[in-house]
Amino acid sequence: GLQPTPDANMSDVMMRHLLGSDKKIEHDPGPKGESGEGDACLVMMFLVIAAAGLIMLYEKFIRKHDGLEVDEGDFVEDVKDSTDAKAKAAEEGVTFTQVALTNEMTAEEKADQAAQAKWLTPSNENPIKKAVLTLLVFYCLWVFLLTLGVMGTGFKLLGGKDSAKMFDVADNPISALMIGILATVLVQSSSTTTSIIVSLVGADELSVKTAIFMIMGANIGTSVTNTIVAMGHFANKDDLRRGFAAATVHDVFNMLNVLIFLPLNWIYPFFEKMTYEMAKDQEPCDGDDCNKTEFLKPYISPYSKGVANYDKNVAKYISQNWCAGQCGKSYSTDAMKKISEEVCTSSTDCSNVHKNYESNWMSKGYLAKKRAPAYIVGTASGTPAEFHYDKPAACSTSTKFFDNDTNFTSTVAGSLTAGTCYEVCGSKVKTGLCDKRLLKGGLLLDDWDMTDNGAGTFLTVVSLISLCSCLFVIVYMLQIIVKGTAARILRKVVGFNGYLNIAIGCFITIMVQSSSITTSTLTPLAAVGLINLEDMLPLTLGANIGTTLTGIMAATVATSNPVQAWQVALCHLFFNIFGILVWYPVPIIRKVPLDGARFLGKMTTNPKWGKVFPLVYTFVVFFIIPGIAYGITAAASA
At residue 573, does pLDDT exceed 70? Predict the structure, then answer.
């Protein structure tokens, strides 16, 4: 055989001798196979949906029920009494809410206490059964996280281009706020919106002043996810009331927060000034330190990407207005000045070059380098040359505008012949960037060949069903597992101290990197009465802070425009911290968000239209109001 090269390390040679061959072993992996994460993800989601269906059938037809949803021996209370109160409440309908506000211990509070007592009574279930179910609950939580990921992708495929288009019309604080809400609701993730905002501020497309109001909107938009989750409890009236109150405490807090800080920041932009002083010395990061720290994402994203992979860049192309074209060559400042002199009307105004022109293309006094044209056509002297991203039909031959592409000297600059074509960026111009597909990989593209909208609709529908199923199964199993000791421990931890809850909420959110996941996981626990609304509020506030820390982590690895990235991230953080300082420490003021959420929860118990109230509320608050405001702004600025 071949003589092993002397520098081949010893163990390598030994291995080969042991294997009976001197040849160096070449590992041939063969063609790249299917990794199957996408299939696995969908299968897991459908398994949970099936499980939920089976449990429902079992509950309805097989299991023996008592008259009321109370296992005997749980806690004995005068059942007649509470049903009478409920019946009376149903008859009185609307007036009942007024009664409830005056009466000390309302029927709702009684129901909540009863629900909690039911959880805290020791259970006599088999420990092995409990252990198995605990594993199943973790499995369902895992699928729940995957589903939220897939739901995000579905929303992005449906709304990604539209939400990216929105960012150009923001010129006053109110429209910026509404765009923040709408864009976040469309892609179901405040971190996506914040990262687009940071990139826009970095590219001079947005002023930090406007960006701050957008971030306030993004804060409100995030709280849509757990409101959707709370609707999964539509089957049980009390659960829906508690869950909806727990979910909307997030909305109410964020809205109250905006109510105070939007006018203040409008009068004097203190957020912008304060964060600028903090961030002005930040350097862009380079080298190996630029890796984001992520905890759960690396485990979840292969699955949601395996189902459908979403092209993040398209949204950036649209929001930064690269739709006409983007030049791939890197020109020097002098080169861009030469080009600008040929095609612009003046050193400040270049709006004649293209219908997509925006003033920030010329912010430095000459065209930004990636905006360079592919070809320019000489015109009569005194008028600017024609500017083209595509090769004009008249150009069968063309002259190079620059003599060479290293130091960019040009003999023709300043004396163009009318009607002659000059090649500037030529074939290096990328056109049609905004028409690229949003779906760039995964099962839905490779195997099922779906359109963007088809895939988006499919994913959104499946993930919403899967979300409800996950919650149903998790709550069903928790009822068996958590009863007794575990519930007591949870109550003790969560009821210990509000400020500890803020820390817990913050920690969980940093681990899962999304406040909506945290609040959506806690909402079912609140719905079944394990967590009080008073404990839910600080957990939510903690989640709010945790999500801003995710933004700060992203800012630490910003390779370009670090100052603006830091400014936006810090604004987000302080907006939430100041909000907590205003609304949380003083018990009387703390009652405001809590009562607001309680009122919204009560609305769902109305016998006539309580069931549709959550839907109407979500549509009005998160779609209709911002949509109308956005429409007015868009029309006004058109």
Answer: yes
